[in-house]
Amino acid sequence: MRVTTDQRRARLVRRHLLAPSARARQAEEVAEALVGLHATDAATVALSAYARLAQPELADVERALYEDGTLLRMHCMRRTLFVVPTRLVPVYHHSTARAVAAQERSRILKLLAGENPGWDAGWLAEAERAALDAVERLGGAGAAEVSAEVPRLGETVVLARGKPYEARQRIGGWVLRLLAMDGRLRRGRPLGGWTSGQFRYHVAPEPAPMDVSTAQAELVRRWLESYGPGTTADVKWWTGWPVRDVRRALAEVGAVEVRLDEGSGWMLPSEAAGGGGDGGPAEAGRADGAGDEEPAAALLPGLDPTTMGWKQRDWYLDPEHTPLLFDSAGNAGPTVWWNGEIIGGWACRADGEIVWRRLADRGAEAETAVEAEAARLAEWLGDSRFVPSFPTPLARELTR
């Protein structure tokens, strides 16, 4: 079976809630639909939710994160910070986060040993226990508060010694982040507004046990449901797993091989049987194919899950535009979408004006729809301002 680029774009628009009629009612629905929201840049969480909510309110995102606790910030895929549905934490934890925490612990021990030979695994374990006790005793605390309670956490380590960008960092922040990766701490409210990346930490219940292969299969199933069809390389990149784990998980969910414009890809068996590509039943073609789609414009923030959802992006992004919209480390900047394709980039200026640049001309309808989305976003932001944590070349140009 073959799935065309037009069909993939149509699926993206519907499944990623970019069509106006597909927008969600609550932030939890957005996180479920996207298998998590990128949270390395704190502003991305609210802006990604905003773009996909029928009646976007910052209070709804904060309710889910800090009041109801139905969403949780955690490091998982590719060692990246995500906001995920709390009920699925065991899936993320056992499929990915435990391995990420082990890698992070090894990295930290290497850095500590380079600074002081006595800062070994035993020293780090004691520091973690002391940090946990301090967080529990304080009823939740930020890194500075915990470091003040535990003197050893106030120690510093020099990074990139001798380089122009040499920096000194406190050990306390590393320890708290590591405990959160292990699932022993959770991030609470930020120590500032909705764009702040500093949080209060709280003691977390241990994630429910789950077999690693079962967790990985469930995560891949959800990715295929939201992002499929995709290639093996796409799944490997998105999860950050070794290719052997990716292949095993694809086999466990019974993924069906399909033909894409750039080669072989995978779909869930239920979708392949229902005609997710051309040649399927007419009803399936209307739901996920191309032809009768609702026009959909969207302004997505930097590091948005849709922009960062695949390694192979040529089917929704002209490769010539990549240097303008991504930084040198591969971080996506704010993007303008039309019917499942990136057609430009945008930025928020210091005075609150939302400005954008067209990189691909898709006609007057697209132009009008994007302008309407820019006006809607400016109205929603009001007096709020934000600057992407990873500014891209086009974003810099637009805000000069």
TrEMBL record:
Region spans: Disordered: 267-293
Compositionally biased region (Gly residues): 273-282
Listed Pfam families: AlkZ-like (PF06224)
Official protein name in the record: Winged helix DNA-binding domain-containing protein
Lineage: Bacteria, Bacillati, Actinomycetota, Actinomycetes, Kitasatosporales
